[in-house]
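Contributing new records

If you add data, match the layout below exactly. Sequence lines come first and carry their own label; structure lines follow with theirs. Keep one chain per record. Anything else will be rejected by the validation script.
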Amino acid sequence: MSLAIDFLRDLFMFPPLVKKELETITKSYGIKAVVRKGIPAGSKEVKPSRIALYDYYGGSMPSGWVRWMMEQYHFDYQQIFPQEIDGGDLNEKYDVILFIGPGIPGASGGYGSGSQPKKRGDSC
């Protein structure tokens, strides 16, 4: 038997080993969980996203804060740097890449034009 949570028209199945934890969580959020026999036909395993967090050498405060938040909420992530981006094939390793703060350097060696808003009166 497994525990099922029907949430937004999707059915999430959990092994019996986590029954006690799920009962506590569902009660605190007002979600109803039911016990079902077997796994419904057509079910697919939900896997966590493979997350990368871009940073430049020397680090940045904005990416440091994002790193801290990811750790607080127990998200697995891989920190990546320009050399890995230059190497390509990122879609083979990651589902999501987070660009925080200045983001990717532009082709001219400076930061991309959309990365930091310009102040009024600054010339282009």
